[in-house]
Amino acid sequence: METKQDFRFNISDFREILREQEGRCYVTGRELTGSNCDAELIIPLTQNGKVVKENVCLILDSIRELKRYHSLEEIVEIARDIIKLHG
What we know:
The chain is an alpha+beta fold. Helix content is 36%, strand content 11%. It contains three helices and two strands. The N and C termini lie far apart (46 Å). The mean pLDDT is 91.
């Protein structure tokens, strides 16, 4: 099993994950490009997520901080609150 120090995210990992996600952001489904893309953990470290390739997703860089600290379920809950407040 890989530890935090063992895993090194590289370009082949990036390409494989991008292909698996069909070129779309893990959270929003929007198209990813080289200039708007970042990698984050699916299960954040704050929730005992591991730094392994299977826990890495590609997201829009504009939501990096949100994904860094929240699970997808928490983000959906936050989005519901925003929609409820602002329509």
